[in-house]
């Protein structure tokens, strides 16, 4: 069995080309070309109609068709652009082709080298989402190195994985900004184009033969967008199958694609070479009246805008284009799909492990990455100042309290328990909701086990979570003039830290269950309030039917 496992990861490692001198092009040729076919793809979801007061008194849900019989064929070395207005089904189709579509009902046929989607295909596929989901405080180099350590097979040494990350940085033109942080909405970092190239680089680390991208040029200027598409074209020329959605490309970008798929409300209007699109629509009376960007013209048609006799009837324009597709393109496309275009498939599904690395390797990388990222969030100036101000103010209010003021000291201990009973809860509640997009992205790529992520996240937060309450307790304890002996001090500190750990665990549990920041915050407020009321401070003797709550209270 051990020999078999070694053979599996050796075959996976064979997909990753060797790096000579650290700068060799990793993308000259795909190791496993993939022919992508999709035929009569239909996707429907069930939806409730009307608002709250207009709901029918029935359990019936109306079905909405997102995709309506879409077909296409993309060969290695080709780049397909999916074009259409918002809501046309571009992203839904891209997600379905990438094997990431959940919910709803998907029918039709999608094959990869005439085989269904499998774990082997998944490990050989790159998927770049529209939003660049990256950690803002990590540098470009750190981002790609950590991704390489998690995604590349275990047979490669750490130095080899780092070399692959460096080679990707060089190939994507990120050398000048590799030591710059990624940044975010409130943190200045690299530019939008550089951030997009980092996202593409994360997928190119595994040298994929099939690459999906969701609107990679959105929000970028025309020059930056052309650089991105030029790099993607270079990758396609290496024998890769590249499929992307694109919103409104310029004319020079449009003609860089090999094929285009035009969608309107889920209906295919055209599939074929970009150079033949205008001639196709002109053949039955839909020609641009003036010289214009062909992509703009196609989008006008997809929206039902035309200068023909149907000028005022957008529905008629769409209906005519759908009918023309079915009569002029659909049958010839089905004939082309019926041809047995088979690439040499050098990878066997049975030779792939589900995970690239061991549980411990995943945990250690996630643990270190989490420490580097979240240290900036835990020890921000605002949080440290907040705790210091509250600690000093509390110390002044209970300044040199002595044993004759026993009620005051009881109040101080209760206040400390309450403060560190709810503060960590609301800090931890937002952990999983904030990590949700990153978790979904990396788990979809099969980067690590959920258990390794949870343990790394939980244990990585412990040192940082315990520092602030230790500082708080030390300041308050000595300012309040409690027993100046190490035994009582350490015992009180231990009890406080145990309460913090319980509160943090509660916050993590609430955040993981609810996974919505606002809902989790509301739910957490109710739980903390119940714990506070059940702490036996306000009510010494509770009724028996509700007295069990005090055993659940962290403060109690």
Can you tell me about this structure?
The protein is α/β, with parallel strands linked by helices. It contains 19 helices and 9 strands. The strands form 2 sheets. A 6-stranded mixed beta sheet has the order 5-6-7-3-8-9, sandwiched between helices. Strands 2-1-4 form a 3-stranded antiparallel beta sheet, sandwiched between helices. Helix 17 (450-479) runs antiparallel to helix 18 (486-514). The longest helix has 30 residues, at 450-479. It is elongated, with a radius of gyration of 29 Å. Mean pLDDT is 82; it is low at 1-11 and 20-24. The chain crosses the membrane at residues 379-400, 412-432, 453-478, 490-515, 522-539. Belongs to the ABC transporter superfamily. ABCG family. Eye pigment precursor importer (TC 3.A.1.204) subfamily. GO terms for molecular function: ATP binding.
Give the overall form: elongated
In terms of per-residue confidence, which ranges show pLDDT below 50 for 5 or more consecutive residues?
A: 1-11, 20-24
* Largest sheet: number of strands, sense, barrel closure: 6 strands, mixed
> Assembly type of the shown chains?
single chain
Question: Layout of SSEs?
Answer:
Elements: H1 2-13, E1 36-47, E2 62-74, E3 79-83, H2 90-97, E4 105-112, H3 119-123, E5 125-128, H4 140-151, H5 158-171, H6 192-204, E6 210-214, H7 222-236, E7 241-246, H8 251-254, E8 259-264, E9 267-273, H9 277-282, H10 294-302, H11 314-328, H12 330-338, H13 359-378, H14 381-397, H15 406-428, H16 431-444, H17 450-479, H18 486-514, H19 517-533
Parallel strand pairs: 3-7, 3-8, 5-6, 6-7
Antiparallel strand pairs: 1-2, 1-4, 8-9
Transmembrane segments: 379-400, 412-432, 453-478, 490-515, 522-539
Subcellular location: Membrane
Keywords: ATP-binding, Membrane, Nucleotide-binding, Transmembrane, Transmembrane helix, Transport
